[in-house]
Amino acid sequence: MTPEGYRQACYSTQSHLKRKDYNRDIKTYAKDVLRLAEHEAPSQSLCSQRRECMSLGSSVWWGGEGVSGWGWGGVATSLLLSLLLTASLVYYIKRRSMVSLINKIPGPKGIPLLGNALQVTVDNVELFHLVNEEFCQHGPVVKVWVAMTPVIILSEAKAVEELLGSSRHIEKSWDYLFLRPWLGTGLLTASGSKWHARRKLLTPSFHFKILEDFVDVFDRQAKTLVEKLKKKADGTPFDILPYIALCTLDIICESAMGRTINSQEQEESQYVKAVQRINFLLQRRMNVVWQHPDFMYRVLGYAKEMEKCLAILHKFTGDTIRERRRMYHEKMENGEDGPKKHDTNGVEKMGKRKLAFLDLLLESSEGGKGLSDEDIREEVDTFMFEGHDTTAAAISWALYCLARNQHAQSRVHEELDAIFGDSDRPATKVDLSEMKYTESCIKEALRLYPSVPNFARELKEELIVAGYRIPAGVTVMPAVYRLHRDPDQFPDPERFDPDRFLQENSAKRHPFAYVPFSAGPRNCIGQKFAMLEEKSVLSRVLRNFRVHSDTAPSDLQLVGELILRPKNGNWLKLVPRRPTELPGAEE
């Protein structure tokens, strides 16, 4: 009897049998067919008989039409459903375990499914207050459920150390992905082995000896800022932040790319507008939940605007890289002697002295090693992004704090007068190193108003903090603004007291109690550059003006987006320190 005949016979005579009995009979027959094929049918291809047997076996093992009537489509559906069921079960078990661990951590009470989502769906001023005041009252480690997603907030030095001090927890949170269209996977957004390799490669570029070469850039651009501020120094309040932001943009552009854009004189340039607009778009996207999905971002029209900004920024950086590479090769061919000049595009030609950050990257990429042009663009754009608004915010907050604390401002004036006297000469690296009290004022301003008030990491493995187990995959956020107001580390924390940063006072503090530049292996690589720039610009302003503010700290309405800023700007009053600095006065 053929296999097909046997199958039909089974249907007609054994329909009353259970399927398991039929399967047993079919398997027995399959074995018989194989045995006969191997010993009693040499004229038939052994392989074809094996295929016949395997075809029959398929009906048994995979539910073919001879057994179940499903066909192969039914088999595929069954397998898919089984896989989905298994995956769902695994997800449920993991999810249940994660929820159980997270719910052991104190935090604000939420509602089913939504958690605390309705609480955090408020304007940015209220959200900043909510996170740093109300939520953090629950303890140094707090959980917040944003719908089905948990976020852990840390506000105590020991807890922050467990996160930032470890080399295992260096992955940025998911919202940093929004920066990648502009910054690619540069140092800020890179992860894993790429971050380690890039950090090692870039660290020598921020050596103090190299940074000293930029001091003249700092002072020259700060002097331009002072000339602009003289027109506002009549005792009338005005928002000083936009003026400082243009100054720091000029500084970072020349320092990073060796290219002068003169944004303080040409505020309407395409590049300046693109930088300002893309910073706004990025901040809004990170803070507005419905702008997160790419589809919605396109529907709302922001993606098109973002792409226009990116085209301008990437072209500017790309053109500069190509021009600097050409000049680098010319320098290597012709030697390094000769004065520095500027071409028609404002690109500073290389001479014997200062190299821009870009030039240092180009040197490391020669011979096919190190960085490609795309890698260099990512790092230059990252340097531009990180070193522009953050530094402007720090200088602006330092001026605000000194405007509200006239005694401290007088001490800064005394220190600067002791260094410069009545001279208008540029500040040197030696001068900057002597500004001890000025530096303490900047540090205290960064304690009260850190430029980056919050940042986050995504755990790749479990983290244990204060006895709580936080599973992998969860976002953990140090609340820097709240951390800097820990009364155990900073007594009377709301008071502006630069003496906190005298060496004898700093030595007593926990090393992770003060992290305006983050801390640990992923701290800010440019913090020395930032401090030199801030001292240079601040000292130049305060050598010329006395600052005042009528805005109390309680009236600031802080907005904690990418950068901490007052909602309505930083309104200060400037008064010239010398009569000749009055607007319109004779020289």
Task: Write a brief structural summary.
The chain is built from 24 helices and eleven strands.
Folded structure, characterized:
By secondary structure, this protein is of the alpha+beta class. It folds into 2 domains: 3-59; 174-581, Cytochrome p450 (Orthogonal Bundle). Helices cover 53% and strands 7% of the residues. It contains 24 helices and 11 strands. A 4-stranded mixed sheet has the order 1-2-7-4. The relative contact order is 0.12. Mean pLDDT is 84; it is low at 9-27, 36-68, 337-353 and 581-587.
Rg calculated over all Cα atoms: 33 Å
| Helix run count | 24
Mean pLDDT: 84
Q: Main β-sheet, in a few words?
A: 4 strands, mixed
> Which regions contain 5 or more consecutive residues with pLDDT less than 50?
9-27, 36-68, 337-353, 581-587
| Shape type | globular
CATH fold-level topology of the largest domain: Cytochrome p450
Give the number of domains.
2
SSE topology:
Layout (H helix, E strand, L loop, with lengths): L2 H11 L5 H21 L6 H16 L9 H32 L14 H4 L3 H11 L6 E6 L2 E6 L2 H8 L15 H4 L8 H11 L5 H4 L3 H16 L7 E2 L1 H17 L12 H18 L6 H6 L2 H33 L22 H9 L7 H14 L2 H16 L1 H15 L8 H5 L2 H13 L8 E2 L4 E3 L2 E3 L4 E4 L1 H4 L19 H4 L20 H18 E4 L9 E3 L3 E3 L4 E6 L11
Helix pairs in contact: 2-3, 11-12, 11-24, 12-18, 13-15, 15-16, 15-17, 18-21, 18-24, 19-21
